[in-house]
Known about the structure:
The chain is mostly helical. The chain has helices spanning 7-28, 30-58, 90-110, 118-137, 141-159, 166-197, 202-209, 215-231, 241-247, 250-275, 282-302, 308-334, 339-343, 346-379, 395-408, 415-427, 432-457, 470-488, 490-506, 508-516; strands at 61-64, 76-77, 80-81, 85-88. The longest helix has 34 residues, at 346-379.
Amino acid sequence: MNLMEHLPALIIAIPLITAFLTPLVDRASKKARNVLVFISLLITFILVVLLVQRVFDKGIITYVMGASNPTETIPKQAAVPIRIVLEIDGLSAFMLLISIFISFIGLIYSFAHIKEGGGRFYTLFLLMVVGMIGMELTGDLFNLFVFLEILSISSAALIAFEFKRATTIEAGIKYIIISSISALFVLFAVGLFYGEYDLLNMAAIANEIGGALSHIDKIALILLFSAFAMKAGIAPMHMWMPDAYGEAPGAISMVLIATTQASLYALLRVCFTIYNEALHVVFPIALILLGLASIFIGVTMALLQDDIKRLIAYAAVAEVGYIVLAIGAGLYGFLGGGDKFASLEMWKVALKGGIFHIFNDVLDIGLLFLVAGGIIYVTKERSLNKLGGLAHSMKYSSILFLIGLAAVAGLPPMNGFASKIIIYESIYGVSPILSIVAILASIVMLAIFVKIFHAIFTGPKLAEHGEVPKYMLASMIVLAGLIIFFGLFPDIVLKNLVNPAVNALMEYGKYISAVMG
């Protein structure tokens, strides 16, 4: 048996099997449990890298679950794909790499602060990883719903894992309610498609839709759009994000960013692949307006916070806004909106900026959450009013926080500058006002984070604290290193990671023909 042919299935199976083994090993030895989880995720990480390399080199890979020749033959019945099909193109490979990398960094970070209930924590952690990567691998709408449910239930439990405060339970309840509503929308849309076409495969549904939308197709589109926008934390459906990000353990706050990006991936798959050119231009306009709303709400609400993690969470809402704004502009040009904008193909540049910023957002906001989690772990304080002078005893953390805030504010030579300058340039073609608003929001965000840095790290020493544990510090240093690398060498990232993802969005016909022939 050639294991390389079964990479998509193994990437899901290894963490899933380990999730069920973890509680059993935990009863025998805590160290053995940590080693098991670490090795499992490391092997999954390596397999993902191999799969991504194959996709970027050879093109779209399809894998049919249960077939004797899963990578070459797609079983059909009257030209309709049957069985579960995993389909990986440049976009899903890009998202898969982000998800497993961030999960692996989060796992290392968690070894420093998860002391009690580790068996439960790592079981839920692995299930969250399975749900996230499953959403990015599947080519089947119903299984997208299944993986979304796995992701939602495990994430809600992890958000409320440290139930020491009433607000923690409240955050978990908010998240599971929003997730349940989103899942119901997706399931309803799946039922509509199945009733109309007798199909569940996304490529097959896209092939049937063609260039004309029925009333059922329009209802399904509104349901899917609402569900994934809600799960991606796009304003005004962002109400769960500050609570969930703010109350979750440090490592989970970071990984939750990747889970919201998985929902954003599903939204991209719906708009560009399933509906593609049949979409009405009102949808990209809606995305642009929602992106602006996310930026405005994120920045203004961050001004009012005194809890360090809630403040960063509102900054995360604003960063999602930049991504949605760029993708909305790209979809607007993709559908032919704005003759000059479309003719100059600036919409492709907008898509590059938005996709690039997906990775940068996880790195930048993720680093800030890790530093904030370390500060709370060491000082037992969350309020900016009760912190100060930490640079005296937490020199490395202060430098890493400074790198993170510069990246989020879009200062050179950080990665945030590299992606945001592309977004500014491209959306100017839609409307100069969009660029002005985006730039002003970044300036305000810089002022907010300078204030945070001053409140937490400068001034006289208020108490004697040590540096964060080594596992935490190592995780933060890795993210900071990538932030600087992406900022100094953006062309390498754009050429090798971003461009294949953007091309996959534009060449939706290849995704469909990989299944339908």
